[in-house]
Amino acid sequence: MIRQQYEPFRSRLLAWYADHARQLPWRNAADPYYVWVSEIMLQQTTVQTVQGYFDRFIKAFPTIQALAEAEPDTVNRLWEGLGYYRRCTLLHKAARFIAAQYGGVFPDDYQTVRQLPGIGRYTAGAVLSIAFDQRFPILEANTLRLHARLLALRGDIRRGKANENLWKFAEAILPASGSGKINQALMDLGSIICTPKKPQCTACPAAAFCQSAKQGLQELIPEAPPKETTEYRIEAAFLIRKKKKVLLIRYPEGVRWAGLWDFPRTEAGVRLPLELPHDLTLQKKIAEMTGRKILPGRLIASCKHSVTKYRITLFFCEGLDAGKSGSPLYETRWVTAEELQQLPMNSTARKLAQTAVLML
Ligand code: SF4
After folding, report:
1. Buried b (16+ CB within 10 A) or exposed e, 11-42
2. Are 237 and 269 in contact (CB under 8 A)?
3. HEC string of 21-88?
4. 3-state SS of the chain: helix, strand, coil percent to 5?
5. Is 80 a catalytic residue?
6. How much distance in Å is there from the Cα of 218 to the middle of ligand 1?
7. Contact 263, 352 (CB under 8 A)
8. What CA–CA distance (Å, rounded) separates 176 from 19?
9. Which residues are paired to 262 by β-bridges?
10. 208 CA → ligand 1 middle, Å
11. Which numbered atom of ligand 1 lies nearest the CA of 206?
């Protein structure tokens, strides 16, 4: 495609952006570290939620070097509540790699950036275009929707040929220089005007170029992907106490919540907490996890929560420690109430910890 043909589109977009750009903390300086951290945090998470986390994170780790030198528990604790914890683990890993290989300076070469843990096509494009003014496209939730509407593209735009066509379009509309600004303007336009529901076409600087607006398809594009079937499950977590301490496990690499701490927890094969003492499979799994024989006791609390397609009912029960049963698969630690507050946990474990602290 010829870049010139998009000049009128870019001019209107930039004129709109001059008046409507979102004021975001990571935009104050085009520091690749800030852009990188913010883009990782923004994956699957709203701008409103990210702002507070970003400020606290940068205050604690003002440079890549500072992040690299921090302990994983400290980094994970600051991430706590943001979810998708693998993002944090990979961010930390990448910081350590940059510190070791590049003296703490974020690389400015696309291939090198793509080798870093946790950095995909989108994040590489965002950092290189915004911080280094290199001509790389981006495609995240807002621009995916915006571009699909501009082109009136039907079908599943998240994968396959349609997705590849959107990447090509995102690249074609970029100017020879100033791609970072265009990319940010596109993200803001998607976020503020071309919203998932009821896009404000009458206020849109791209309306004259938009195929969906011309054909009245803006409410139908993008087409919703088929919904995943909901699955219901019961889990049990155990409060195991000894001399004012409580037993925790740390999730290992490769499993959900890797690096975070939790009360020994697993899926149950029964429907009622009263039946847990008869669930021998559950007791075996807890024994493998902790290396200890744990006998289910009384119910302390229960809660419901969702993780992706799962609707989980969680029973929080007392667990009686009946001694060693073998080598634990997971790292375990007996912790005080104070340590319980400091260690990084997922959000349900944090709620259970608040109850546990009162019982120590
Ligand atoms: S005209 Fe409407 S549908 Fe098209 S890009 Fe603008 S807000 Fe989105």
Report:
1. ebbbebbeeeeeebebeeeebbbbbbbbbbbb
2. no
3. CCCCHHHCCCCHHHHHHHHHHHCCCCHHHHHHHHHHHHHHCCCHHHHHHCCHHHHHHHHCCCCCCHHH
4. 50, 15, 35
5. no
6. 7
7. yes
8. 23
9. 249
10. 9
11. 6
Question: What tens digit of pLDDT does each residue of 111-140 get?
Answer: 999 999 999 999 999 999 999 999 999 999
Closest CA relative to residue 32, chosen from 89, 76, 95: 95
Whether pTM > 0.85 for this model: the answer is yes
Q: What are the residues whose beta carbons fall under 8 Å from the beta carbon of 149, sequence distance 6 or more?
A: 194, 199, 210, 211, 212, 213, 217, 218, 221, 222
Tell me how far apart the alpha carbons of residues 264 and 316 are, in angstroms, rounded to a whole number.
10
| Cα(21) to centroid(ligand 1), Å | 17
Average pLDDT over residues 222-233: 90
Cβ–Cβ < 8 Å for 196, 157: no
For 21-67, what is each residue's pLDDT tens digit? 999 999 977 899 999 999 999 998 999 999 999 999 999 999 999 99
Q: Would you give the distance in Å from CA 62 to the centre of its chain?
A: 21
- Yes or no: say if 137 and 147 are a contact pair by the CB < 8 Å rule: no
Rounded to 10 degrees, the C-alpha dihedral 65/68/74/75 comes to 100
Q: Among candidates 149, 128, 146, 150, which has minimal Cα distance to 137?
A: 128
Mind listing the domains of the chain with CATH numbers?
3-215 (1.10.340.30), 231-358 (3.90.79.10)
Across the chain, which distance is largest between two alpha carbons, in Å? 75
Q: Please report the pLDDT score of residue 4 as a whole number.
A: 75
Among 7, 39, 267, 331, the active-site one is: 39
Mean pLDDT score of the chain, rounded to an integer? 95
- Among protein residues, the one whose CA lies closest to atom 3 of ligand 1: 218
Q: Which residues fall within 8 angstroms of residue 18, CB to CB, at 6 or more apart?
A: none
